[in-house]
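User: For my dataset I need records formatted as: sequence, then structure tokens, nothing else. Please produce one.
Assistant:
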Amino acid sequence: MTGYILHRAADEDLVCGAHYIRRDNPDAAVQFVERAFEAFDFIAG
């Protein structure tokens, strides 16, 4: 769990992007979201 809260628009953009990717590759969609949050953790740290 992260120690911050995403702006609603950013969260919606991530979900929209993941749904788009999921059409072709569900595993890639999961990785997309995981890597995005890893990047957020890196930036916040």
